[in-house]
Amino acid sequence: MTFEEYVGSRGPALMRLARLLTGDEHRAEDLTQDVLTRAYVHWRRIARVDRPDVYVRRMLVNANNSWWRRRSNRELATADFAERPQHGDLGGETADRDAMWRLILGLPDRQRAVLVLRYYEDLDDATIAQILGCSPVTVRTHAMRALNNLRERHGVPATNGSRP
Predict the structure, then answer these.
(1) For 28, 81, 97, 154, which has the most beta carbons within 10 A of its beta carbon?
(2) pLDDT tens digits along 55-96
């Protein structure tokens, strides 16, 4: 598969993954562009890998984590948004989804990455472990902690290790 074919078929999914990891459409575009630029330079080597999509997704997750480590990219988080949607404006489902995404964006990077890769990218634990460079057990632990954190912050009693 050529680089152009790969980007044509997987580009939208990579952009969606970046958007879910960052929570910001503009930063997701920059992140995806940076990762694809680096992938293009090394595409011959990446294309020979057994699963190039796993490799590029890992590049995307690592690039997102690296962005947060740079001192120049620190943003001041705030609980109030200038244009916060009202429940009456958008409908209950959209407002609930927006509130849930705010909770998800408050999770630690690894936990958020596990939830995004598992529930939005529909990947299994072994593939997520490859992308994040950890064991499948660690993936399950991050998922359990993230879901318990979300349940607690959403007012639902936490469970002890059961997968939803």
Answers:
(1) 28
(2) 999 999 999 887 655 544 555 555 555 555 554 555 677 777
Alpha-carbon gap, residue 101 to 97, rounded angstroms:
6
What is the C-alpha separation between 11 and 130, in angstroms, rounded? 20
pLDDT digits (tens, 9 = 90+) for 112-121: 999 989 988 8
Contact between 54 and 127 under an 8 Å Cβ cutoff? The reply is yes
- Among all chains, which residue has been given the structure tokens 């489902």? 93
Q: pTM for this structure?
A: 0.61
SS3 59: helix
Distance separating alpha carbons of residues 16 and 79, to the nearest angstrom: 24
